[in-house]
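A.,

Following up on our hallway conversation. Structure tokens first:
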């Protein structure tokens, strides 16, 4: 395995396990402890992980990933306000893709039943929510990632290759002025990139906590978005990025 690929996998393992020892990483990566120590030092220099006694822990922001259950209760009122505005963008006879995530889940929950709308998702949780509304639902298939309850991997990507969507609601772990939209996991980045490529209109839904944050892997540039719905005004350098990308920014604050 090339050093770049090995280091990328190390960041994912450290993030998903909330920390790993040198011995654990050496066993999982099937390489020497000396190699792992060199990789950890290199990654720490890049601020992608933080060294700990005998191993590494996730960086404060980069590479860190909370579970879905942790995220679904955070900034809930803001996510509900975002969703209230987002559902107004859904129209009859559309094929609408819902990215896995706690904010997109709120959009699915607030979507009024509409028998003419075809819904598609890589989230088993959202598929059940949409099915309860009596809507037609398609799942991508793929491997389930337990931190996010999202379906990813080759099977999900093959499904995406065959499809086209009118509208996409996509979430993100971070919105960075120079790196764009970011996530801690490579498989998540791949499926998100495909969602965007296969959608005629892309709407980012994210609360203010993701603004000016940084994660591990970029999956979209600003000019790949059509609209950004959030709960607070976007200012400064980040606002300039959205303007240059010709993205309509809509703020729906918590009442």
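Then the amino acids I'd put at each of the 255 positions:
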């Amino acid at each position: 395995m090339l050093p770049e690929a090995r280091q990328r996998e190390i960041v994912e393992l450290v993030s998903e396990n909330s920390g790993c020892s040198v011995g654990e990483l050496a066993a999982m990566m099937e390489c020497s402890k000396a190699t792992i120590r060199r990789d950890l030092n290199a990654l720490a220099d890049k601020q992608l992980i933080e060294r700990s006694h005998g191993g590494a822990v996730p960086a404060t922001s980069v590479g860190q990933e909370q579970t879905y259950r942790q995220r679904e209760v955070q900034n809930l009122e803001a996510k509900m306000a975002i969703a209230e505005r987002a559902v107004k963008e859904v129209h009859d006879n559309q094929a609408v893709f819902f990215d896995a995530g706690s904010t997109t889940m709120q959009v699915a929950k607030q979507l009024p039943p509409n028998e003419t709308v075809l819904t598609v998702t890589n989230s088993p949780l959202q598929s059940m929510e949409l099915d309860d509304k009596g809507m037609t639902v398609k799942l991508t298939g793929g491997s389930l990632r337990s931190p996010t309850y999202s379906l990813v991997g080759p099977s999900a990507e093959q499904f995406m290759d065959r499809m086209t969507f009118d509208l996409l609601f996509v979430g993100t772990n971070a919105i960075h002025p120079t790196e764009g939209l970011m996530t801690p996991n490579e498989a998540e980045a791949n499926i998100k990139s495909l969602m965007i490529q296969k959608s005629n209109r892309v709407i980012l839904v994210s609360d203010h906590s993701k603004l000016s944050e940084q994660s591990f892997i970029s999956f979209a540039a600003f000019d790949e978005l059509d609209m950004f719905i959030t709960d607070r005004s976007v200012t400064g350098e980040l606002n300039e990025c959205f303007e240059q990308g010709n993205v309509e920014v809509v703020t729906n604050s918590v009442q």
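The mean pLDDT is 92. Curious whether your intuition agrees with the design.

B.
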